[in-house]
Structure of SH3b domain-containing protein:
Amino acid sequence: MRTTAESGKEDAVDHSAGGIASLMLIIGAAEVGASDRICRIADPTGTPLNIRSSPNRALLSTIDNGRDVRVLEEQRVKHELWPRIMADGQERGWVFGSYLDCVTDADAMKSAPTRPPTPLD
């Protein structure tokens, strides 16, 4: 048995065949897949964003707001998105996805109007 940091409750983990699948259900993690898109760090508190060893785990370092990062992959843990990022050509770790401002392919395809709207009289 182990105690989770979030709830303080003990979880039984089966390490036998199928134990990994059980563990994924216990912690609620699901891999979303590879992303390989550019995002900007946008922590609303204005403080540097924590970079972690895995989603919601040990703190490795921080990264300043406004920095562009590449999202390598994403995992969903308990309905929260955790991207694994790369900055300055190096893999850095996992960050809380709500603090990234990402441009999706759909956003990139949008264009500005060819002429400004005219006021209605």
Observations:
- The domain at 29-108 is CATH 2.30.30.170 (SH3 type barrels.).
- The helical segments are 19-27, 105-109.
